[in-house]
Design a protein that fits this description.
The chain has seven helices and 16 strands. It is an alpha/beta fold and about 260 residues long. The chain folds into two domains: about 80 residues, Ubiquitin-like (UB roll) (Roll); about 130 residues, Cytidine Deaminase, domain 2, CATH 3.40.140. The strands form five sheets. It has a six-stranded mixed β-sheet with strand order 11-10-12-13-14-15. α1 packs across α5, α5 runs parallel beside α6 and α6 runs parallel beside α7. The longest helix is centred in the C-terminal third of the chain and has 14 residues. Pfam families: FdhD-NarQ.
């Protein structure tokens, strides 16, 4: 399925108008089926859907390792990702009973936004990140983002595992972009413990939790965090940075990982 949709529009520039072709991003309702049971549904852009499902299940602690997956397949006819895997039944039960509709674009649920009950490990990596390197990467953030270049209608996440390698997630829903990037990296056997993640939108609680649950030590955005996002980052020792624009950078937690 193509992630873009072509249509004809009427375009005005001042009082002049013309009929022309335009490219839109396609939006679908995707179901995630695990061991023949529906785990959830989300609005998504139909690209990297298997990675999206894996990243979502990792972030919710439903699967602990992608090696626990014995089979994964996108069923285009039914618009679902079908997975066979060894799962954490307790986390799945928690998701079913404690799920919250999250604040990102599109509709999805999480059970991991409660500061008091969130089950995650402290991020104790002593890796350091140079401030100028963060600025340089952010200045090139939208490069190699094909859907954004074509439509300007998607959020983007870039997960850097080293200076040379990164994984891109693009979707109408920001939380999906993170799951896609994490899923692609995990399926590629990448080590995330010294990685850093850049996103295009706000750093709300569910975005921060996804970094924490996957032991990513640095999360950066061009925009602002929410209060709960900052509290979660501080509790789990995640370095959280916002307003990364030009030579500006706001550090909200664990500033010791950033150096000049």
């Amino acid at each position: 399925m193509e992630p873009i949709f072509k249509t004809q529009i009427t375009k005005y520039i001042g009082d002049d108008f013309s009929n022309c072709d335009d490219i839109l991003v396609r939006e679908i309702k995707l179901d995630i089926i695990v061991n023949d049971k529906k785990v959830g549904s989300m609005m998504a852009t139909p690209v990297d859907l298997e990675a999206l499902a894996v990243g979502y299940l990792l972030s919710e602690n439903i699967i602990l390792n992608h090696k626990d997956i014995s089979d994964i397949n996108f069923n285009e006819k039914k618009l679902c990702v079908e997975i066979k895997a060894k799962i954490n039944e307790e986390s799945l039960k928690t998701l079913n009973h404690e799920s919250i509709i999250i604040s990102g674009c599109g509709r999805s649920v999480t059970a991991n936004v409660n500061l008091e009950t969130l089950s995650a490990k402290l991020i104790n990596q002593d890796i350091k990140f140079k401030r100028s390197d963060i600025s340089n990467q952010m200045s090139e953030f939208y490069t190699q983002c094909e859907l954004y270049e074509k439509t300007g209608c998607v959020h983007t996440a870039k997960l850097f595992t080293d200076n040379q390698k990164f994984y891109i997630g693009e979707d109408i829903a920001q939380h999906n972009t993170i799951d896609k990037a994490i899923g692609k990296a995990t399926l590629d056997n990448a080590d995330l413990k010294n990685s850093f993640l850049m996103v295009s939108g706000r750093l709300s609680s569910e975005m921060v939790v996804k970094a924490v649950m996957n032991s990513i030590p640095l999360l950066v955005s061009r925009t602002a965090p929410t209060s709960l996002g900052v509290l979660i980052a501080r509790k789990f020792n995640l370095t959280l940075c916002g307003f990364a624009r030009g030579n500006k950078l706001n550090i909200y937690s664990c500033e010791s990982r950033i150096y000049a």
